[in-house]
Fold this protein.
Amino acid sequence: MPALKKSAFTLVEMLVVIAVIGVLTAMAVPVSMRMVQKGRSTACLGNLRQLGVALNLYLGEHNQVMPVLAAGRSQKSEQLDVIDTKLREYAPDERIFCCPADAGKIAETTGTSYHWNSALNGQSILSLNFLNNTTPTTIPVLADKEGFHTHCKSKVNILTADGRISQGLNFTTTR
C-alpha cells in the first residue's frame, strides 16, 4: 500500500507569501491615500463652486457690487464681515465653507478654509480690476487659505471672477 503523503506549507513558502502580501500592501497604501486626497480636493472644488453660486445670488441682490469683506480672521469670535458671515444666507449649508482637506482645522478656528480677495471689495462685477487685470477668467475671488491638497504639490483651489474653478500656485504656504 502506498503511504499517504502529507502536504503542508514549508516555512520558506509561508515567508514568501507574507513577503508578497507585504509588497502588495506597500504599493496599495500610497495609491489609496492619493485617491482619498484627490477626493477631498474634488469636494473642495465643489464647495468653491457652491460659494460662487452663493456669491452670484448676493451680487444679484446688491446691484452686481462685490461685498466689502476682510480677507479673513484669526478667530471666529472676531466681529468682522468675512465670507462665511456675509454669504451665510445664500449658502445655508455651513459645510461648504470648510475644505474637506483642511486637516489643520483652520475652518474650526477662523470660520472658513477659504481666503477672500479683498482687493475686489466694493467693485462692480461688470468692471472688475485686479492689479490692472480686467479679465474675469484670471481674477481670483476665493482660494484655499493654505496648501491643503498635498497631492498637487504647492497649489490651491481658486474660484475666479467668471465662476471657473482651477488650481493655481500658492504664494502663502510655508511648507
In short: The chain has one domain: 13-169. The two ends are 75 Å apart (CA to CA).
